[in-house]
Design a protein that fits this description.
9% of the residues lie in helices and 37% in strands. It has 135 residues and is mainly beta. The strands form two sheets. The chain has a six-stranded mixed sheet with strand order 1-9-8-3-4-5, with no helix packed on it. The longest helix is centred in the N-terminal third of the chain and has 12 residues. The chain is globular and about 70 Å long. About 7% of the residues have low confidence.
């Protein structure tokens, strides 16, 4: 096989390594002054192997931007404010974020970043929060 063909083959086989991380995105609509829950679940959660964080802004490769909350796989170990809580069963993979007493600054994109051992295994989910005035 010539060097050119080998190089072409390598590029076509390994192109996906250079793609930016992707994250699914949902939109949640809530009302100002009320609580809202941003969904995030992982069906194969392991207490010993998974941890996660919620951040404000787009998902990044390896961490949460503007980290709001972090777990060790069984419990919340840090939170930016009492406004941010996980009310689901973390040990069952329900890491949905509840934001209390919402205000306009809470609108925007959030990232649920679940750490999964191994290369390129992390689960990232973006949730866009739109807040409206209650009628």
């Amino acid at each position: 096989m010539s060097k050119e063909l080998l190089l072409l083959w390598l590029v076509t086989e390994l192109w996906w390594l250079y793609l930016p991380p992707t994250a699914s995105e949902d939109t949640v609509i809530g009302f100002l002054g009320q609580s809202v829950t941003l969904p995030c679940q992982h069906s194969s959660w392991s207490r010993r192997r998974n941890s996660m964080c919620w951040g404000k802004g787009a998902c990044s490769i390896s961490k949460c931007n503007q980290e709001l909350l972090h777990t060790d796989g069984t419990k919340v170990i840090s939170t930016k404010s009492i406004k941010y809580t996980l009310q689901g069963r973390i040990w069952r993979g329900n890491v949905s974020l509840t934001i209390s007493n919402t205000n306009q600054e809470d609108s925007g994109v959030y990232c649920c970043h679940i750490k999964v051992p191994g290369w390129f295994n992390d689960v990232k989910k973006s949730v866009r929060l739109e807040l409206r005035r209650a009628s």
